[in-house]
Amino acid sequence: MSDLSMEKLVGVYAKMYAKKTEIDRELKELEQKMKQVKIAINDHMRELGLESVKTAAGTAYRTVKTTYIPSDWGMMHQFIVERNLLDLLEKRLHQGNLQAYMEEHPDDIPPGLNTNMEYSVTVRRPKS
Q1: How many helices (H) and strands (E) does the chain have?
Q2: CA-to-CA distance for 82 and 70, rounded, in angstroms?
Q3: By residue range, what is the domain housing residue 69?
């Protein structure tokens, strides 16, 4: 691709991005319709007292998904620390907060911290 001009490369990218945007919109519409069908299937299964149903078109089954959401993170943190239940937390860093800390304390690097930096390119369409 090195023999292509920057104008052509940017133009090709802009066309591809426009197509991706169109596909993303269509995908969102399809996912919304699929969600509505799942709701209808769930309603029918609930009304019939079924947990699963096998049809010629496929099998549908109902499962229960439970999520836990703290209403007070301070109290939850205290609960976890007091009982040493650190395994209730996921292992990930808040990227924005860590970046802010590192900018404010450039000499206080946490031990074992790896940093990965890479360039990214942003292409914008010209204003019409």
Answers
A1: 3, 2
A2: 16
A3: 6-104
Question: Is the pLDDT confidence value at 96 over 80?
Answer: yes
Token output for 43? 């309603």
Q: Give a yes or no: residue 35 inside a domain.
A: yes
Per the structure, the count of domains in the chain is 1
Question: Quick one: DSSP state of residue 94?
Answer: -
123 falls within a domain: no
> Contact 41/60 with Cβ under 8 angstroms?
yes
Residue-wise pLDDT tens digits, 67-88: 999 999 999 999 999 999 999 9
Integer Cα distance of 121 and 94 in angstroms: 24
Compute the residue count for the chain.
128
